[in-house]
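Aspartate aminotransferase family protein
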Amino acid sequence: MDQLIEWDKKHFIHPTSSIRDQQEKGAKVIFEKGEGIYLTDKNGKKYIDAMSSLWNVNIGHGRKELGEAARQQMDQLAFSSAFSTFSHEPTIQLAKKIADLAPSNLNAIFFTSGGSESNDSAFKLVRHYWRIQGQPERNKIVSLKRGYHGVAAGATSATGIPEFWDMAGQLQSGFVHAATPYWEGTQGSIKSIREVIEAEGPETIAAFIAEPIQGAGGVLVPPSDYFQEIRKLCDDYGIVFIADEVITGFGRTGTMFGLEHSGVQPDMMTFAKGVTSGYFPLGGVIVSDQIHGVLKEKSMGTLFHGFTYSGHPTAAAVALKNIEIIEKEGLVENSRKMGELLLEGFKKLKADLQIIGDVRGVGLLGAVELMEDPSANKRFSPELKVAGKVIEALHQRGVICRAVAYEGTDIICFSPPLVIKEEEVKTLLEKLREAISEVAQELSV
Ligand code: PLP
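Structure:
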């Protein structure tokens, strides 16, 4: 164990980590095993994985069927290229399956290995779409502040969380950010997007991208009319609307895709995470029949865009089995039902404890906001690191959650596996109550 920690410190640069902290302290937990909603570390300590790791292990840990699906596919054909006119059955089957599940206007899929690649691919596809129609000046992408779209060059630039911009040094040109509907309301956000579009010149805007619920921004649920207004706005300006369903896809919000809650169809959708529940890296972009039609008709020669793993047969076989499990076990419905219980529990905690502000959730994507005085809308001083303290208190109780803290917010995010059972939701809520109470006591509020 000590040797592992030393090698981890010396050789493993962790994603989204403080390299200095890691050098000093080493890995805090080395996980060894997962089953259902639980992870167990090398010391035998068991945790509720209330984040589905990175919002992605939708069917829960330890599902042998996925290993079996991967093994069978690897035995037969682990990999062969899908470049140009080569193809293979699992990826064809998966494309058909996802087209059947997606909104009726979205039927053609470009595969990637994750969310960032999917969003960068969407940006290139949409710019190509305009270029081949004789409008190359339409190349700007509008996105939301506090939106998260990944860490590839375009995805970082579309991301509206400034902390992620530092490493890029410089954002790509042609990315502009507008106000968030959770903070500014539907009208505030729409007004801000209109202002951005008018300032840049509507004839220069290629697309608007948003998550149905902004996950990494702190599970920011927009007002219920928001995406209808977005649809109207995009139609007014003739702008392509890209829904980033990387977190919200595949049952997370109690519907197969997050945008179903607003009854709106996007022109493109990006997905990753829950499509394989993390058992294999996979993502993709689904384009509308209209966009696909233009690409077919006007694209000249080869589409010079494709990853080695665009259409990986083993990833596709794993995704097909994962989706089969989601459907067979009614996990979308379970997400809705357990999500209601979780939200009810959050509301009860808010009624009982003094330091809870807004609580929110759609399906199994939820958040609890901590405040010094919710009735006066007074936040804690950021130096107190209240969300971090609650996360630590949860960790000690064997619960893994995620803190989001910016501009004085202290948000605890939840995204448990969709297989969570009623008793497990209750246990999670009980541990949350204990953790928040302990921190409140420590802060004497
Ligand atoms: N889009 C959203 C909404 C995400 O939450 C994420 C990752 O958390 C991404 C894109 C990037 O996906 P990946 O980390 O697979 O590149």
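The chain has a mean pLDDT of 96.
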